[in-house]
Amino acid sequence: MTHVEDELTSQPACWTRAAEEAGRHRDALPAPGERVAVVGCGTSYFMAQSAAALREGAGQGETDAFAASEFPHGRSYDRVVALTRSGTTTEVLDLLGRLKGTGTRTTAVTADPATPVMTAADDLVVLDFADERSVVQTRFATTALTLLRAHLGLHTDSVVADARTALATDLPRGLVDCAQFTFLGRGWTVGLANEAGLKMREASLSWTEAYPAMEYRHGPISITTAGTAAWMFGEAPEGLAEQVRATGGSWIAGGLDPLAELVRAQRLAVAVAAARGLDPDRPRHLTRSVILTPDAAETA
Fold first, then answer.
1. What are φ and ψ of residue 65, in 5° steps?
2. Confidence check: pLDDT of 177 > 90
3. Which of 65, 159, 184, 246 has CB atoms 3.0–4.6 Å from 52's, for a disulfide?
4. CA 192/CA 217 separation, integer angstroms
5. Is the pTM for the entire model greater than 0.90?
6. CATH numbers and ranges of domains, the chain
């Protein structure tokens, strides 16, 4: 079993623990009414998108999501929450450093406190039980999002049950053989769709795309045909499933909690990698954390 397989199968237990610990981290996480930005890089950026949409949708306050490198420093926030598994990513540390002493409170959610992020952020939430050996993120990302869902009162035991179902049931027949995958979301699940696409690219070198579901009709559906698949995270717009099937493409309806659907997509990425003779623990051109030297940062 690869590291990523072992780690993705542990997610139900990690989610349960994160939900149980959410209350302990209440003071480090955004309070109702705060103006908040959630930031990250790669997978963490897509989890930030989902977390921001969930919080704002819950009426907790204006919440934005940014890639750490694209944070708008001219904009005022009460708190910035940085999601960083390694605690060493250059863009995140640079952002936290620039925010020191500005009056904006910063919180880092990390898997490893023995890293520079410990002193870079004002508050620290450590999810070391969800740390990973694999380059490809699975359980840390979903556990961090579960923590934030629980903090908002939006996590239930049924989410964990759905994750167990996602691990126990077979993937749709023929899905591994598809040549192209499109992931679709609405609201907070757009971030999950983006992450599913990234996971497929990282682990299996697949041609994948992700869109807000209503945007799929505005051009992207033109690539859909026999041998392609469109996977919906959450409730689909009326008529979209029929339109996809009419192209000859496969439609995958997300019947589980959308976060559990992401677990299914993670499993698909591993399965496609195996079918193509790839090692998902060693994705091409990737490292566990992007750490830029001064010379590299100047040319990036």
1. -130, 140
2. yes
3. 65
4. 19
5. yes
6. 3-152 (3.40.50.10490), 157-276 (3.40.50.10490)
